[in-house]
Amino acid sequence: MTMRSEALTMTKDGRLSAMKARFFGPTARQKLLAFASLVLLLIFFSFASPVFMQIDNILGILQSTAVNGVLAIACTFVIITGGIDLSVGTLMTFCAVMAGVFLTYWELPMWIGVVAAIATGALSGVVSGTLIAKMKIPPFIATLGMMMLLKGLSLVVSGTRPIYFNNTENFPMISQDSLIGLALPNLPIPNAVLILFALAALASVVLNRTALGRYTFALGSNEEAVRLSGVNVDRWKIAIYGLGGSICGVAGLLIASRLNSAQPALGQGYELEAIAAVVIGGTSLSGGAGTILGTIIGAFIMSVLTNGLRILSVAQEWQTVVTGVIIILAVYADILRRRKV
Fold first, then answer.
1. DSSP letter at 161?
2. In terms of residue numbers, what domain contains 171?
3. Is residue 23 part of a domain?
């Protein structure tokens, strides 16, 4: 066999291995399991309550998934690197508050407020990444500190009062209106959901087709090997946290537009649901594996579960208990999955 034919054989074997990993690997099986769980939840709650499948309730599920899903996308990039970001919830709130400052306090054009919110998120993410990459602070501690810092800044900047967007006429359109509803009145899917899917598609392209995505997986698989190969690990890690922060800025715009206000006390707790959605969707907490599609499925599971329990009049404290159990089970499933690899 010639060297050329050997190279072709090796290439084919590599492609076959990649295809097997993509369609039959642990991450793919976890996505399939998550999707099956979502279908079972939809069937169960449909039979448990006739209200569940009504159009208004479905739209409510979509709206709530939009915010949590965007935050989960931000967490996906970070968790694939083997890190964690506990600040996504309060960062979302801080970005909403900064949008309120630009649009309500300073009465600037809406596009400036949108850019300011996303830029605020990116800057905060860069700060978190710098603390982790340059100062070598563990991600859990660094982002925990950022969570408290951003929570305090939101209260300080807003004066502990909500900021209303009553003077910004088109701001509610970001989340509440429906471009699809204009053409199809019977299908009034909110713009927030369209933004979620568009962002998910873009994030999937970045994760799978760009250098940033390749280094995201590489850092989670073996950071030291990446460093020894001559790659500036710190720069890429800061860039990944910065990207996650900018995505949190989008989430801040969505929730502020939905409420038509920036609520400075809101945000803490969102990070748990976002991380749970990421893990349920097949992203490994040890890093190196994960998909955006799995994350979106996980976000829908969390929203459907919360909505269904609320419709069945399950007390709020028990809803929290169920969420905690799901997070524990998701992490344990991730541990079992890694043992089998």
1. S
2. 29-340
3. no
In a domain, 250, yes or no: yes
In the chain, the amino acid numbered 148 is M
Q: Which residues does 237 contact at the CB level (< 8 Å), separation at least 6?
A: 81, 83, 129, 132, 133, 219
Non-local (6+) Cβ contacts of 69 within 8 A are 196, 200, 277, 295, 296, 299, 300
Paired with 163 in beta bridges are 262
The conformation of residue 25, written as its DSSP 8-state character, comes to S
Number of domains composing the chain: 1
Integer distance in angstroms from the first to the last C-alpha of the chain? 33
Q: How many helices (H) and strands (E) does the chain have?
A: 13, 2
Residue with token string 């949190």? 248
Question: Who's near 275: CB < 8 A, 6+ residues apart?
Answer: 72, 75, 79, 84, 327
Whether 252 maps to a domain, the answer reads: yes
Is 24 part of any domain? Answer: no
Burial of 166 (0-12, 13-18, 19+ CB in 10 A): exposed
* DSSP calls for 256-278: HHHHTEE-TT--TTHHHHHHHHH
With beta carbons less than 8 A apart as the criterion, state whether 77 and 205 touch: no
- Considering the entire predicted model, what is its pTM? 0.89
CATH number at residue 275: 1.10.3470
Task: Give tens-digit pLDDT for 259-310.
Answer: 999 999 888 889 988 998 998 888 888 888 889 999 999 999 999 998 999 9
